[in-house]
Amino acid sequence: MCVAGCIVPAAADLDAEGRSRFIAIVGKALSDRPRSIQRQFGLFLGLMRWLALLRFGAPFDRLSPANQDVMLRWLLDAPLAKLRGGFWGLRALAFMGYYGQTEVWPSLRYTPSFNGNELLYG
Amino acid sequence: MVERSFDVVIVGSGAGGGTVAKELAPLCREGVRIAVLEWGPKLKEEEFTGREAEMAEKLYFDNGGFLTRDRAMTLAFARAYGGSTVVYTGTSLPLPEEVLSRWGVPGLEHADLQRRSEKYLTENNVHLLDEDRINDNNRLFLEACRKLGYRVEQFPVNVKGCRGSGLCNLGCPNAAKQGTHRVQLPAAEAAGVEVITNCKVERIGGRECVVTVTNPPFGEPSRWPQGRYRIRTRAIVVAAGAVNSPALLLRSRLPVRLPALGRYFTAHPALILVGEHDRPITNFYGHPKSYYCDHFVESAKFLLETCMYFPFTTAKNLIGFGAEHAEMMARMDRMQMILVLAVDPALAENRVTVDSAGDPVVCYRFTDEVLDALVESQRVAARIFFAAGCRRVHAPAGTSFFIGADEAHRLEELINREAFKLGKVSISSAHLMGGCRMGTDPATSVTDAWGQVHGVPWLFVADASLFPMCSEINPYITIMALADRVAERVRMRLPELPAA
User: Fold this and answer.
1) Closest Cα of chain A to B398: distance in Å?
2) Closest partner CB to B421 (pick from A8, A84, A111)
3) Helices (H), strands (E): how many in chain B?
4) Which of B23, B101, B110, B228 would you call most buried, defined as having the most Cβ atoms within 10 angstroms of its Cβ?
5) 3-state secondary structure of B34
6) In whole angstroms, how far apart are CA B197 and each of B13, B184, B218, B229, B423?
7) Closest chain B C-alpha to A30 CA, distance in angstroms
8) Which of A105, A117, A118, A121 to mutate to test the interface with B (most CBs of B within 10 A)?
């Protein structure tokens, strides 16, 4: 949830139910993925921890918010495509955990309806 | 293992398989036994909820995010009764004559393909939506393209009783979209074709296939009990899509060597681009995809289409994270969206292979031309957004998260190739083509112009994997027209094929 809060700031403000939904969505998405992808994702998380330790002398979750942001922005634009791809996967999971919750949709002013035409034309 | 036998087995029930099933269905009256084996479920009507994460899990392989081997692109393709026709927007365009000329398949004539395409335009209720059914997201695109002098056309769509949920890509909750799940498959079943859902074909060997039926915790249970089956048959038609058809043939024991199998895969790699207005517009109500701009197809190798996606898909396609990303996401009612699709070349190295478990692996290399097209398309889309009145736009190849309207004169500089890095950008594809391409030379193609696998008289292919190059437009009507040809050839050949 620490990384998720950096990627989607509102995820840090989720209540207990919202956090449970977040964890359930992400857990399900990961468990549905091929084992090779799960393994690579685990490796990437481990690498992230080490990179934070090497660069800032502390694991990622103990960094200041400013240093966490620096670290993630470096990964976003990392020189190696594999690192960028790993961060893309992490980012996608965080977005899925948060924006995949229909409960947050009204706060985005996204209110779909099966009868959209009625709302368009009355 | 339970033994079954049929005269014709069709693998897959989408645009290709559904069409073949319906075209062969009249043979059931003569005692011909036909089965359609569909990997995915048949959802109950109340299961089309429009909830993004839930529908992605129920209808798509890998939740709609099947990754290429290098993780640079995600592929969206469905498994369901009706295949990907359940989840497309219903856009239905016949293949342009000049594209067919580029395909250069001897024996595949434009007049023939056009005649067959028109049959499905009628059968699936394809028409233009009335102007008063067009929302702001689409109307603004049309007006901006016209203002800029870009050629723009309206998409014909295959809907009946559309209520404008805008949820086409999650399966229409109002049963309005006329995919094969609404038209061809019910007709085929009524005529006696058996459709077996939740049925994965493991491999083909000789004139038989081995399958497993497993019911997921949603949808209607398969008409066959769960378990493994060996199905003997006279003819097999593979129509499992451009990823799964080559993968199935690659893990099967075929009596011939097919060096082109899996190769020449194309995908129309796509980006979702977003502009922001300073006021709410209507975007997620109404049909999401009404117009396309093919002005740049010849000159710069990309196509632009209107689109409107859902929160997670949208969030994933914006570059970056944190406050500015959240700021944009907080106003989905102000978003205008454009999908850009690159016209990609058919390269032998871009291919479907299988891993040690027999699962598909897609190897795809982006050429410089495709990357240039994707970057240039973002500049053109930004011009359209600004001409439509957007206050700022977001481009994946942008040097900053937002580009303001006051910077519109600097697009060449602000959107550039250096900022467009693979792995960082969300490139996706829903138009998967090639892998079992048609042709005359078995060294460079897999089937003949009628979908029959070279050297195997009982084996046919009937889906987008037949395309020798990309279609440069939305592919579904072309798949149906080609499947219609395949069905004709199967009908002709069946009397010559020995009994199962």
Assistant:
1) 13
2) A84
3) 13, 21
4) B23
5) strand
6) 9, 15, 12, 13, 36
7) 10
8) A117
Whole-structure pTM over 0.80, yes or no?
yes
Q: Could you confirm whether domain B2-125+168-257+437-496 is CATH 3.60.15.10?
A: no
Chain A residues in contact with B322 (beta carbon < 8 A): 6-7, 9, 69, 72
| B131-155+270-343+367-421: in CATH 3.30.70 | no
Q: Which residue of A has its CA nearest to B162?
A: A117
The one-letter amino acid at B483: A
Per residue of chain B (500 residues), give pLDDT as tens. Answer: 999 999 999 999 999 999 999 999 999 999 999 999 999 999 999 999 999 999 999 999 999 999 999 999 999 999 999 999 999 999 999 999 999 999 999 999 999 999 999 999 999 999 999 988 899 999 999 999 999 999 999 999 999 999 999 999 999 999 999 999 999 999 999 999 999 999 999 999 989 999 999 999 999 999 999 999 999 999 999 999 999 999 999 999 899 999 999 999 999 999 999 999 999 999 999 999 999 999 999 999 999 999 999 999 999 999 999 999 999 999 999 999 999 999 999 999 999 999 999 999 999 999 999 999 999 999 999 999 999 999 999 999 999 999 999 999 999 999 999 999 999 999 999 999 999 999 999 999 999 999 999 999 999 999 999 999 999 999 999 999 999 999 999 999 999 999 87
Of all residues in chain B, the one with the smallest CA distance to A68 is: B322
Tell me whether residues A95 and B315 touch, CB distance under 8 A: yes
CB contact under 8 A, A109 and B331: yes
Interface with B, mutate which of A2, A39, A120 (most B CBs under 10 A): A120
- Chain A residue with CA closest to B334: the answer is A109
Yes or no, beta carbons of B321 and A8 under 8 Å apart: yes
**Bridge partners of residue A31, in order along the sequence:** none
CB-based contact A108 B173, cutoff 8 Å: no
The residue among A8, A13, A110, A118 with the most chain B CBs within 10 A of its CB, best to mutate, is: A110
**d(C-alpha B387, C-alpha B381), whole Å:** 10
Could you tell me where in chain B the CATH 3.30.410 domains are found? Answer: 131-155+270-343+367-421
Which neighbouring-strand residues pair with B212?
B200, B228
Show Cβ contacts of residue B146 under 8 Å, excluding neighbours closer than 6 positions: B152
Q: Does the ipTM exceed 0.85?
A: yes
Question: B13: which 2 tokens?
Answer: 């029930």
Please provide the DSSP assignment of A77-122 as one string: T-SSHHHHHHHHHHHHHHHHHHHT-GGGGGGGT----TTHHHHHH-
- CB contact under 8 Å between B174 and A82, yes or no, is no
